[in-house]
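Supplementary Note 3. Input sequence used for the single-chain structure prediction.
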Amino acid sequence: MLASVTIRPAKPDDRSHLRQAIVELQDYERALHATRLPGELVADAYLDWLQRQADAEGGVMLVAEREGVFAGFVVGWIELSEIITETPDSNRFGYVSDICVMAAFRGQRIAAQLLCAIELHLRRAGVARLRINALAANTSARVCYERAGYAPYEVHLEKFADIETEQV
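The predicted structure, written as discrete structure tokens, is reproduced below.
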């Protein structure tokens, strides 16, 4: 039987583990899509930015541990927009920005536990809707999110702007 997972707010002494997770996550996504920069190149600045977002009203960065060992993290906050065509509850939503479970802990439902914890935090902050993004090619993340009750909301499509094939 696996030891239980502890989920708690991130502390300053978690930084090296969080940085390692960001590098791992970024490099994993880089293998899926060429738009992602190398993890080592962006980890410090991105972690600083995530922490500022998490420190904003309603935000939090949570760490998962198993037997005192860093297993992963999740970060989310409240997003506010002013899209005229959207309902008020759609313009103020909980955004789950990043989630990562370290390789040694995958397949143990830790991502699901991290999602539950961040969702609870954001619901307590008063949001009615939760949103999360995933690369289209990241099928394992998409399966995890759909299993947790997330459904497609908007689909972003991409095309290279190739001037050679421009039609007039």
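The chain has five helices and five strands. The mean pLDDT is 93.
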